[in-house]
Amino acid sequence: MNYIKHLNAIFEVFASDERLNPTHISLYIALFQMWNKNRFSNSFLVDREATMILSKIGSRTTYHRCISNLHQWGYIVYEPSRNRFKGSRIKMPIFEISPGPVVDKHETSGGLAVVSYININKQIKTNIKLSRKSIPKNEQVVLNFFKKNHWAAVEATRFYNHYQGIGWKVGGKSSIEDWRAFAKKWMLKANEINANKEPARKPRKKGKVDYLQTTTKKNYGEPL
């Protein structure tokens, strides 16, 4: 296994996968280093505490979420241990660069291909394709979409901050599948709210008496 070719290929995949955050990448690199120390064996055991220290992850919840994500998305094969005195087992699929279909997982050069002992190439590409519509890459993408639909930037910012704050989920459970569809629903709702607003009061016409105003000077020192 050529670890330089592997790292070049994996970073190509990382760059196109919008689901990943820095913690995922830090954890993957920590696992890769452990794999390296185990001479790139087919599988190896990891200790949670040691892995958290190496990857600079301070929360067990974050660690378990990220390692489960990496397993779900096909970057690793994670076999958790039910024994507190025994480490979990990790398998690392091989990512390498190849000009075409890969016959042997050790023969690499040219364009990008993903090679592994669980055949995750198709799975990763499919997941990346789906994720591109589910969550906007950043706030500027949302601003551009609202501008294209003739909406003010302030409304785009409200939409982005609202869904960013709830993790782009519906009802706190289901992930949003297409954020643009939710943006259009947001626009329709905003139109309804604006239509139901009470009309502004017209300014008082000239010539009408305003009984709240008086020109009579009164001495407030006199008793009533």
Short overview:
By secondary structure, this protein is mostly helical. The protein has helices at residues 3-16, 22-37, 48-55, 60-72, 121-134, 139-148, 153-165, 179-196, and strands spanning 44-46, 77-79, 88-91, 95-97, 112-114, 169-170, 174-175.
Notable traits:
224 residues, mainly alpha, Arc Repressor Mutant, subunit A, 2 domains, two-stranded antiparallel sheet, 8 helices, 7 strands
Give an account of the 3D structure.
- With 224 residues, the protein is mainly alpha-helical.
- It folds into two domains: 3-132, Arc Repressor Mutant, subunit A; 135-196.
- The protein is built from eight helices and seven strands.
- The chain has a three-stranded antiparallel beta sheet. A two-stranded antiparallel ribbon has the order 4-5.
- Strand 2 (77-79) and strand 3 (88-91) form a beta hairpin.
- The longest helix is centred in the C-terminal third of the chain and has 18 residues, at 179-196.
- Mean pLDDT is 78; it is low at 100-131.
- Residues 194-224 are annotated as: Disordered.
